[in-house]
Amino acid sequence: MRLIKGYKRTKQQAKKLPTNHTLSEFEGTRLNGSLRQLEEIMNSTLGTSADLATRKFQVFGQFPAVMYSFSHMVQQAVVNEDIIRPFMHVPRHLQDRNIELAQLPDILLYETLYHGEVQLQGEIDLLIRAVLGGDTVVAIEGMPEAFLIGTRSIDKRGIEQPATEQVIRGPREGFIESLGTNLALIRYRLQSTELRVESREIGTRTKSKVAICYMDGITDPELLKELDRRLSEVKIDGVLDSGYLEQFIEDNKWSPFPQVQYTERPDKVVANLLEGRIAILVDGSPLALVIPTVFGQFYQTVEDYTERFLLMSAIRMARLVALIFSLVFPSLYVAIISFNPELIPTEFAVAVAGGRAGVPFPAVIEVLIMEVSMEVLREATIRLPQQVGGALSIVGVLVIGQAAVAAGFASPITVVIIALTTIGSFATPAYNAALALRLLRFPLIIMAGIFGLYGIMVGLIVIANHVLSLKSFGVPYLSPLVPGDKEGIKDLLIRAPIKWMKNRPAFLHPQDNIKLQVEDQAPSPSAEETSPEKR
Question: 251-290 pLDDT, tens per residue?
Fold first, then answer.
């Protein structure tokens, strides 16, 4: 068996080529023009896979060649018409010409092949990775480089409305699993020469393609350097979803609060890019990551900017009230019932006492049992098929709640409190932020059951102290509230008119701070120097 140039092995391995190799062993190894060498390497790395298509033929009837591809990842009609046919049939203007091997690469590349994605590649590890990714490799006997042809064609679902981010007024398109389609959706909405897309591969075995999108001239260069540093430290076998990267690049892995925002909406990604943030997309994942992230982003929606500011400011305040309800309402109920019943009006206290008559548990145990039951029911509803899940959520709440009250297991007021809390958590647009608040409810309930209102205050102080210490890629988590930013405050608790929001958020340190040009106001000298229009 022929020795493979560049392949390192011990004296015991020199007599026989091993039957199983990893791809990393062939890094830097180049083709020597032998089809037998390539066949041995393909067999030792890819093995006898049923879907690996190996096609041997003669180029122009005189040069032996072999083609490798995975049959289920390529479009067979394109392979037949745009690759095999041009390789096998001599063009009319070359039929009477004697073609030498040295002339063959240029003739095939510039005069014969019809396909648009063709390049010559001589490194074996890159050729194997290309085949694994769905491309086609054609090697010719005597040539030190093989033809690498882009033929990837994988069935994918159509572009639909995002399931996790429902919208009333706004675009209905959402990301899918194909990275190329997702990048096209962003380009479609952001047709700017300043949009940059950097690509890299992460995952020692999967070699997952990751795209980093940002706006040149707006995004802070230091933010790009920090992201590059964190991604370079990711050493994992496979990246199957963007959630893998999120756990590697976040600042505090012990915090329940999300420090990276994910979204299925291309318009949301574009809006964040224009503010100076960075979007990270992973091939095979329909969720894009947006960094840096502040807490205010998790209760904002697309409708906040597509509808009039007065109406949406009121709706945003209602979301904030629901967010507070979902966090402190059960613990507040436990503290008042257990320690400070005098705070309840007399008529209402009589009704509460009558409802709690016969309940064998103290208020804290009762609320904890109902909260755990609701979490189990919610999880069961998510995991069940869609046709059954909706019916279970309604029937389960009605039947279990009514049965618990009738059996004296829980009081009616407790059921109402838990129902309002659950509805409040559903009003939070971001699922991961709502999940953090659901998790923090339990320690607050326990603190309220032990120390009353003092326990709630201590718990809220601990949560506030933790949130104040959080950062997302160097940006304080409560920006623009702490530290204060006048421009950012306009889009925090309420949404000011768009005409008032002239500058980008200062906490992102954008290179170009001006977002809205006003005719009667001349831009500042610094804005003129950094503005893309002045370049």
Answer: 999 999 999 999 999 999 999 999 999 999 999 899 999 9
Return the axis-axis angle of helices 309-338 and 453-469, rounded to nearest 10°. Answer: 140
Most confident stretch, 151-165, 207-221, 366-380: 207-221
As a whole number of angstroms, the distance between CA 259 and CA 261 comes to 7
CA angle 529, 530, 531 (to 5 degrees): 100
Q: Nearest-5° angle of CA 232, CA 236, CA 241?
A: 95
**Any alpha helices (H) in 276-308, and if so which ranges?**
303-306
Encode pLDDT of 18-28 as tens digits.
445 667 777 87
Query: Which letter, b or e, does each residue of 203-223 get, where b requires 16 or more Cβ atoms within 10 Å of its Cβ?
Result: beebebbbbbbbbebbbbeeb
pLDDT at 464: 93
Q: Clarify whether residues 134 and 59 are in a common domain.
A: yes
For residue range 140-151, what is the model confidence (pLDDT) as tens digits?
998 999 999 988
The count of structural domains within the chain is 3
**Which residue reads 């405050």 in tokens?**
489
Distance CA 261, CA 289 (A): 6
Which amino acid belongs to residue 532? P
Q: Are residues 276 and 348 in the same domain?
A: no
Q: Cis omega (within 30 of 0) on the bond before 483?
A: yes
Distance CA 75, CA 186 (A): 26
pTM above 0.85, yes or no: no
300 belongs to a structural domain = yes
Same domain, 114 and 184: no
Q: Is the distance from CB of 202 to CB of 245 less than 8 angstroms?
A: yes
Structure tokens at 150: 């882009």
User: Rg of the chain over CA atoms, in angstroms?
Assistant: 31
487 located within any domain: no
Name the strands in the sheet holding 261-263, side by side, starting at the edge strand that comes first in the sequence: 195-202, 208-215, 278-282, 288-291, 261-263
386-406 and 363-383 helices, crossing angle to 10°: 160
Looking at the fold, whether 352 and 409 belong to one and the same domain comes out as yes
